[in-house]
Amino acid sequence: MNEREREIRRCLKDDFEHYASRCLWIWPKKGPLVRFSLNKAQRYIHEEFEEQRRLIGRVRALILKGRQQGCSTYVGGRFYHRSATRRA
Questions:
Q1: What is the Cα–Cα distance from 48 to 53, expressed in whole angstroms?
Q2: pLDDT tens, 13-25?
Q3: Pairing of strands 34-35, 25-26
């Protein structure tokens, strides 16, 4: 594996937003599959989670969510990313 490939793997492993937009697909309410790009609510949650992870080394959160904001999709994608890019 060359240096460029190592950098690509590192970026996919360490940056969920980058990983999601390139590796995850979702079904919208209408139409075909689309790439998962974070919406405004998901981006806000992501920024808060990442700040907590930087400060204390882990993320613990309860999300009291409204309907149709994509919180469950975001959390599911984040769990999938972690399980797909980390060793047990």
A1: 9
A2: 999 999 999 999 9
A3: antiparallel
